[in-house]
Amino acid sequence: MPSFKLMTPERLKGLATARSNDSPVHLGFTAPKLALAFSRVESYGSWKNPIDKQFDRVLTRAEKSAISAAVGFYTGEAPTILWEAEGTRVVGRGYYAVIGA
Known about the structure:
The chain is an alpha+beta fold. Helix content is about 40%, strand content about 20%.
């Protein structure tokens, strides 16, 4: 299981730099790729809320890897990715529950 680092002002500053040169910032993914993957599962009310997203198909290995890395990056904890008859479900406790803020 990968370890996740909490968002700090220093990490956010590093992200701003990474966005400009598109270098990997977390588990080999660039900041834009993490943001795109997270946008596929984040809660509409707030990105800090619990995650519960149902996809109507089975996600590819690359999609699951990117989503797992992105959720871990933004919330501090990897999501649970479940295969179901209807497709794939991604669930996570969310930033508020994991970080407590």
